[in-house]
Amino acid sequence: MPNDPDPPPAKRFKPGPPFPRVEPKNAMLLPGATASRRQLPIYQTREALIRHLRRLHSAVLIGETGSGKTTQLPQYLYEDGIGRQGVIGITQPRRVAAVSLAARVAQEKNAQLGKLVGYTVRFDDVSSPETKLKFLTDGMLLRESLGDPLLLRYTVVILDEAHERSIHTDTLLGVVKSAQRRRTEMNKIPLKVIVMSATMDVDLFSEYFNKCPVLYLEGRHHPIQIYNSKQPQSDYLQAALVSIFQIHQEAPASHAVLVFLTGQEEIEALARTCRDISKHLPQNCPGMCVVPLYAALPHTHQLRVFQPAPKVHAAFGSRKVVLSTNIAETSITISGIKYVIDTGMVKAKRYNPESGLEVLALQRISKAQAQQRCGRAGREESGFCYRLYTEDEFDGFMSMTVPEIQRCNLSSVLLQLLALGVSDVLSFDFISKPSPESLRAAVDQLSVLGAVDRKDERVMLTALGKKMAAFPLDPAFAKQRILKLTALTPAPSRYSQTLLISPGFSCSEEILTLVSLLSVDSVLFNPPSLRDEVATVRKKFVSSEGDHVTLLNIYRAFRKAGGNKDWCRENFVNSRNMGLVSEMNLKLESSLAEPVNVRRCLAQGLFTNAAELQPDGSYLTLDSRQKVSIHPSSVLFQCKPACVVYTSLTQTSRCFIRDLTLIDRDWLSSEALPESFRLRLHLSRS
Ligand SMILES: Nc1ncnc2c1ncn2[C@@H]1O[C@H](COP(=O)(O)OP(=O)(O)OP(=O)(O)O)[C@@H](O)[C@H]1O
């Protein structure tokens, strides 16, 4: 470790109050409970819980992180014969949680994964007709509801981690509530709904489900000692680095560390620094195995966090240090984690309905998130949480995270609701209403795309809109031959336009392929430590026309190589994710369309995402006049093109545009684009 003037954590941090601990009382042994299951706090209340839940239609369940809600409650219900006529579905905001929880519960039930206990997540369905306990992402259940609005396959739906308030959870809450009511009205098997979390606004949820009872689970399995920084930290990354190495030099190697950071680049950079520093530590220090975890990481790599650290140091063992985004914040148990380091920061979506811009911006977490982060320690034994912010700073955090539905573009959600037959989408029973401006902006956008018609105050799905809604990607993917895409998530609605107009440019195959490539998890590996090597091998694919054409070149080469794994490794291509796109029957032939057609089509489809070079070298978005910069990962980074369209916008130190295509500004004057946009374009030029 380089000269480090900071005192050890115990001196830099101030202890906060420990989590309360409830000693287990004498409990009756129930069938199906193994010793470790019986030790969880929820076990003490099993009988009472079941008694209440047997008669309740809806309930809110709140209990400490790690008390056993997610892994135990579904098993209790099943073991006590509740909901056995159908499936007990447990939703999770994230895929990695759904998969790891299903694996844990299957193990506890001594069952083969995919039989009694299974999961369904994007691209991966490990369930069968035998599956009674099914873990799934809330997005997947929402998808299922399109084909089965009453959710008749389910007898119980447990909405877990409801405090996260993702757009899918909030929409699902309304869908589940409506299915429950309609099933009762139609005398069908009732649907039991249980909303769970350790950190939620219980009154809000109880009120929403007709003032249903709130069940409190008392007790914490293992104590967690929280320490707050004594001083505000000006550089949370540096503070995290110092804390990691102080723990590393003081604690036994078996004590793993989990650090919460904000995004891929930050994580990869810190991982590199940690690996470099750990090489220069004294001989008697344990080895360090740094494991990154973020959404864009291939799924198999994500699962590495659950494995023990490989023995890199024969004599002193090696410590697992997990560097993660908020993907590890809720639900999951990572074995060995004794220490959590919480930077208090997160990258979250923000939407401005006036500009139509949706950006990812760095911000402080909420108190609920801080508590969830803490709860990732102390799961197998007592733990510690080092918060890189002071108690005063913590007091200033918002208590709950602002629901995503109030800070993102709503067009995909509205389209799904319309497809579900919701007659009045603008007054849909959302648990927290989105702003009228966002709703109006979403309707406007769908209307520009031809997905909806407006009559008076009513919004109706057009025949085209119905087709669009059949696909989870985005309204515009309504094309029969990509039916296999049904497992993808919604992409920004701006792709819609692109796909719709692609036949006019004779480049439907290219655009379909592009949208798929941009919608699956990253198809390319870009390890920062090998940046130069990656740049060298990618040179042969790079097009001066931009990232989209470059991506198509890589895809074509992948198909030509027959998806060969060695080829993928050499070219830093993620063979699994690329293979998924290829399996979708996107047989892109080599010279179907001229790249210029693809670019023209992208320009017209993504017209709201156009940006123009300014005399001072910066870029301004044409629609909302926002200052942006080209992200260094773009092949156009060095070229300073005059005008581009981009796929996404990320705000970190600056507002970066990513995945670009070079365009001619005049293409944006096309009659096909809305009059209002052309007028604005004209004004900006004059
Ligand atoms: N994969 C696992 N490996 C080891 N122990 C596990 C695993 N999953 C769960 N556990 C044990 O079971 C306990 C309960 O986990 P569970 O996910 O059911 O709690 P929870 O109350 O839902 O927590 P949270 O609110 O954090 O999701 C954990 O604290 C841990 O002791």
Keywords:
alpha/beta, Rossmann fold, 24 helices, 24 strands, disordered N terminus, binds adenosine-5'-triphosphate, hydrolase, hydrolase activity, nucleotide-binding, RNA helicase activity, helicase
Instruction: Please state how the strands of the largest beta sheet are arranged side by side.
Output: 5-4-6-3-7-8-2-9
CATH topology of the largest domain: Rossmann fold
Helix tally?
24
- Estimate the strand proportion: 15-25%
Q: Write down how many β-strands occur, each being a DSSP E stretch of 2 or more residues.
A: 24
Keywords: ATP-binding, Helicase, Hydrolase, Nucleotide-binding
InterPro entries: DEAD-box_helicase_OB_fold, DEAH_win-hel_dom, HA2_WH, Helicase-assoc_dom, Helicase_ATP-bd, Helicase_C-like, P-loop_NTPase
Biased composition (Pro residues): 1-21
GO molecular function, one term: hydrolase activity
Could you explain how this protein is built, in words?
The strands form 5 sheets. Strands 5-4-6-3-7-8-2-9 form an 8-stranded mixed sheet, with helices on both faces. Helix 14 packs across helix 15 (436-448) and helix 14 packs across helix 16 (463-469). With 686 residues, it is of the alpha/beta class. 34% of the residues lie in helices and 19% in strands. It has 24 helices and 24 strands. It has 4 domains: 35-216, 3-Layer(aba) Sandwich (Rossmann fold), CATH 3.40.50; 224-405, Rossmann fold (3-Layer(aba) Sandwich), CATH 3.40.50.300; 425-491 and 500-584, no CATH class; 595-684, no CATH class. It binds adenosine-5'-triphosphate (ATP). Adenosine-5'-triphosphate binds at residues 40, 63, 65-72, 100, 104, 198, 221, 330-331, 333, 335, 375, 379-380.
